[in-house]
Amino acid sequence: MKSTSESFYQKVYAIVQLIPRGRVSTYGAIGNYLSARSAARMVGYAMNQAHSAQNFIPAHRVVNRNGFLTGKHHFGSPDLMQQLLENEGIEVQNDKIVDFKKKFWDPALEIV
DNA sequence: GAGGTGACTGCGA
DNA sequence: CTCGCAGCCACCT
To answer: Contact A38/A28 with Cβ under 8 angstroms?
Structure first.
C-alpha cells in the first residue's frame, strides 16, 4: 500500500535516526545515499517536516557541508540545536561544529 | 495544472 | 583565495 514512496522523508528520517550519538552527518551525504547526488535540498526539506514527524528526528545531527548549524533556526529555538549537540559531546562554536570532519558520519560508509 | 520555494552542493571566473 | 551562479527534486500555494 502507498508503495508510491510513502515519503522521501521516511528515507531521510531513517538515515538521520541511524546517526550514532556524538556523530553528525551532512545533507549531501544522506542525499547521496538515497540515490540523489545533490538532492541535499530534499534532505533539508525533509528535516523541515521532521518536527511534524511522529517519531523524534535528531535533525540537530544533520548539518550542512561546512559543519555550520544552518537549520538551527528551525528547531524552535536557535540555541536548541547547539545545546543538543553539546549534550552529546559535540563541541559547537560560533554555530559551527568543532572537528566536524572527525565527527562526520557517512551513511554510505557506515551502512553496508 | 503551473509556478515558486527551500535546513544544499559543486564548479567556474 | 574569494565570490557568484546553476543544478537538483519534492512539497506547498
So the answer is: yes
Q: Rounded to the nearest 5°, which phi and psi values hold at A41?
A: -60, -40
- The answer to whether A104 CB sits below 7 Å from nucleic acid chain C is no
Quote the radius of gyration of chain A (alpha carbons, Å): 13
A38 touches strand B (CB under 7 A): yes
pTM attached to this predicted model: 0.89
Q: What was the pLDDT predicted at A32?
A: 87
Cβ–Cβ under 8 Å, residues A60 and A75:
yes
Interval A45-54: pLDDT, tens? 899 889 888 8
Give the CA angle between residues A9, A103, A57 to the nearest 5°: 25
